[in-house]
TrEMBL record:
UniProt-listed InterPro entries: CobZ (IPR012831), FAD-dep_OxRdtase_2_FAD-bd (IPR003953), FAD-oxidoreductase_2 (IPR050315), FAD/NAD-bd_sf (IPR036188), Succ_DH/fumarate_Rdtase_cat_sf (IPR027477)
Keywords: FAD, Flavoprotein, Oxidoreductase
Coiled-coil ranges (or none): none
Keyword Flavoprotein assigned: yes
Record protein name field: Tricarballylate dehydrogenase
Pfam families reported in the protein's UniProt record: FAD_binding_2
Length: 466
């Protein structure tokens, strides 16, 4: 029997396994995917949002606890547990030395269109390099890793963990950390969560999955069915507007369309439906998937002109390109007259000031609904470009309720030996919305907490049975 069983293979799971092993516990980690696909959604990440009171190593200027909290408060609309959120924020300030000790390397500060040089630390080689570094360190420390071992159920004695099952194979442990992700790859559960819209459509049928195909939510469902306390709305998720031509799974960061704030977005009727310039893109990119999901056919179109080129991270696929709006509409299969009318109405409403895509500038619209609050410039300089958008689900927010020790709750009571981290509990902090890098902050903070607490609990259990 091992001391700590970790179920999952991404950032949160690995942080838990490493911390538990460092604390002296014997650890087994069960990853559902083959070795070549290990790492869950963490393999597609790029950075970690970090609090810091002054410039340090790869972080410039300062990003205080209060500013971080206000950013999180804004994107969640207050739908967050402040105590747990602040725990994550404070933990993000001092995790980098530990990450470096386990082989993670960071890039020098980035500048440019993403506005995150000050707030986020970027991994050298991206999330795949981070995951590989953690696996190498785990193997060196003696963590027993099993691939292609999907856990489908757990055995509980009341609120106490006893064992986990993968098929008929039983894994007994003194404590357990659940870190096997959400249900974003489970199409039936997505359909259940989103239901039908007024047009009789099932929006979830048109969702693409930015991350791993292995996050089916099987273990999450099993725990909820067993009476674990839930947190979060099943229809809420990290949902991004991505290229409609993206693959069904594992498209990752390169499928994102980042020119939204520099132009307009229209639905299939060529009508705008939201303020494209509401705030900086890293604070707003994760609302656009949900906005597109709420449109007929779950599709939108980002329209820009040549003035925007070079001011955003280019997508992996080239967009439609035309010298006239009518020609662009034809390529995108949009109603030509309506697109021209929408653009003309928008252009007429633009009150140009001093354009600066790196600031919340004073270029805005007047007498236009919906408004465009910043970066509003007429779309009048051909060639014109258009990108079809679909909702891209990264991870879901329905999860398990926890406390500051990462303990799973049953009927309001904390389990003595069952813990959770990562996507399975992110809804405690993210009721809705997202800001770049906070998912990795949550996974790192609670993964490390869960590992320490599981190791401590396992030692106590050992002593009780000595």
């Amino acid at each position: 029997m091992v001391d700590v069983l970790v179920i999952g293979g991404g950032n949160a799971a690995l942080c838990a396994a490493l911390m538990a092993r460092e604390a002296g516990a014997s650890v087994m980690l069960l990853e559902s995917s083959p070795k070549e696909w290990r790492g869950g959604n963490s393999q597609h990440t790029r950075n970690l949002r970090c609090m810091h009171d002054f410039p340090e190593d790869v972080l410039v200027d300062a990003y205080t606890e209060e500013e971080y909290w206000q950013d999180l408060l804004k994107v969640t609309g207050g739908n967050t547990n402040e105590a747990l959120a602040r725990l994550v924020i404070r933990a993000s300030a001092d995790c980098r030395p530990w990450m470096r000790k386990h082989g993670v390397r960071f890039q020098p500060p980035l500048s440019g269109a993403l506005h995150v040089a000050r707030t986020n630390a970027f991994f050298m080689g991206g999330g795949k390099a981070l995951v590989n570094a953690y696996y190498r360190s785990a193997e060196t420390l003696g963590v027993h890793i099993r691939y292609e071992t999907p856990v489908d159920r757990v055995e509980l004695d009341g609120d106490r963990f006893v064992a986990a099952y993968s098929g008929e194979e039983r894994f007994e442990a003194r404590t357990c950390v659940l870190a096997s992700g959400g249900f974003e790859s489970n199409r039936e559960w997505l359909r259940e969560a989103w239901g039908q819209n007024e047009l009789g459509e099932w929006p979830a049928d048109n969702f693409l999955i930015r991350g791993t195909r292995f996050n089916q939510g099987v273990l999450l469902r099993a725990l909820l069915n067993a009476g674990a306390d839930s947190i979060g709305d099943p229809s809420q998720s990290h949902c991004v507007a991505i290229d409609a031509r993206s693959p069904l799974y594992d498209g990752g960061i390169c499928t994102r369309i980042d020119c939204v704030s520099l132009g307009i977005v229209v639905n299939r009727n060529a009508q705008r439906f939201y303020d494209e310039g509401e705030d900086f893109w890293p604070k707003r990119y994760a609302i656009w998937g949900r906005l597109v999901a709420q449109q007929a056919g779950q599709i939108g179109y980002s329209i820009i002109d040549s003035k925007a080129v070079g001011r955003f991270m280019p997508p992996v696929f080239p967009g439609a390109k035309a010298n006239t709006l009518e020609e662009l509409a034809s390529q995108l299969q949009l109603p030509e007259a309506q697109l021209v009318e929408t653009v003309n109405r928008y252009n007429a409403a633009c009150k140009e000031g001093t354009f600066d895509h790196t600031l919340l500038d004073n270029c805005h619209t007047e007498n236009l609904q919906p408004p465009k609050t910043h970066w509003a410039r007429p779309i009048d300089s051909p060639p014109y470009y258009g990108y079809a958008l679909r909702p891209g689900i990264t991870f879901t927010y329905l999860g398990l309720k926890v406390n500051d020790r990462a303990q799973v709750h049953f009927g309001g009571q904390a389990s003595p030996n069952l813990f959770t981290a990562g996507e399975m509990m992110a809804g405690n902090v993210l009721g809705k919305g997202y800001t770049a890098g906070v998912g990795m902050s949550i996974g790192t903070a609670f993964g490390r907490i869960a590992g320490v607490e599981a190791a401590r609990a396992s030692l106590q259990i050992r002593n009780e049975h000595a």
